[in-house]
Amino acid sequence: MKHSKLILLLLLVMRNTALLAATLNIPAGHPRLWFTSPAELSQARSWYASNPTNPANDDYLGMAFQSLMTQDPSGCQQAIQPALDIQIDTSQVSSDSAR
Questions:
Q1: pTM above 0.85, yes or no
Q2: In a domain, 80, yes or no
Q3: What are 5-29's pLDDT values in tens digits?
Q4: How many domains does the chain have?
Q5: I need a surface site. Which of 49, 54, 55, 70 has the fewest CB within 10 A?
């Protein structure tokens, strides 16, 4: 469940990046949003190698996380459209769907 929340956050950030493209600067040499260093990403991948998951066909967040851990882009490709399809009402003070 914790991984799903992290992946959802990443996908939401990725979706909203297009809206913030004029002001958001993610360096090409360091595009990571979850892991702030190559060492952290390597450590996570080592952990995942011993603790693999098998996401369900509709677990797009799990697919994206698995894709990052295994360096197989197919999971991310399956998760992109559902992430882009997320609609969040921004006309209110807060948004329950964004929590």
A1: no
A2: yes
A3: 667 666 666 665 555 445 656 566 6
A4: 1
A5: 54
